[in-house]
């Protein structure tokens, strides 16, 4: 018995070491960024990896005001909220139609959505950019909201369709017998029951829209979102690393807060998309 316990302890020790190294590799970049943001430019040059003995918050104020991050932050908030609301509304309607109504050709439509998930964004950037120019949507927040909605809609529709397909069809049939219309059934039955999936979808799409750089860089060329503004803090030949680190901390703070508050919903989102066999 003692030999078995000794083997288990040794096995746990062997497993714990690489896990500890993995955790350190994830935590250290966060610590380094925050520590660098608290240093002056001179202090960082003299000692890059040491603790910030001359800690200052001046970099945060300079990044927020002088580097126009406050303006970029507003752009990101407006665009993200607009895109997420549009994605939730459209995907909820589409998932309801594909999973519950099952109209003629619904399987073909769902198959097209699945295929579109396999197409990389980079493949369609040229026709996408030409379309945006033709529609005069370049340098507009509305254009970026439409772009985010278009690019992230296939995944959203897939998730909502998979969730609604798991619900008992008897609920829909019973509501029809009671005389409820299709919109009434969606509003009073499907939408309330779909809140877990909608919450997960809202969190995921918020992260996608907030962290995006490529699509935002193409659409908002004069205005900028926060992530594009952070990238612009890098100079061509030299970079004020403490200022850049402060900008990164400011940009990451809302996302970290979302992860902390909604971590259970994010993890449960993996199971939400399981299709009923």
TrEMBL record:
Domain of life: Bacteria
Annotated localization: Cell membrane
Matches recorded under Pfam families: BPD_transp_1
BP GO annotations: transmembrane transport
UniProt keyword annotation of Cell membrane present: yes
Spans traversing the lipid bilayer: 12-38, 77-101, 108-130, 142-164, 197-220, 241-262
Keywords tagged on the record: Cell membrane, Membrane, Sugar transport, Transmembrane, Transmembrane helix, Transport
Main location: membrane
ABC transmembrane type-1 domain boundaries: 73-261
One GO cellular component term noted in the UniProt record for this chain: plasma membrane
Keyword Membrane in annotation: yes
Record protein name field: Multiple sugar transport system permease protein
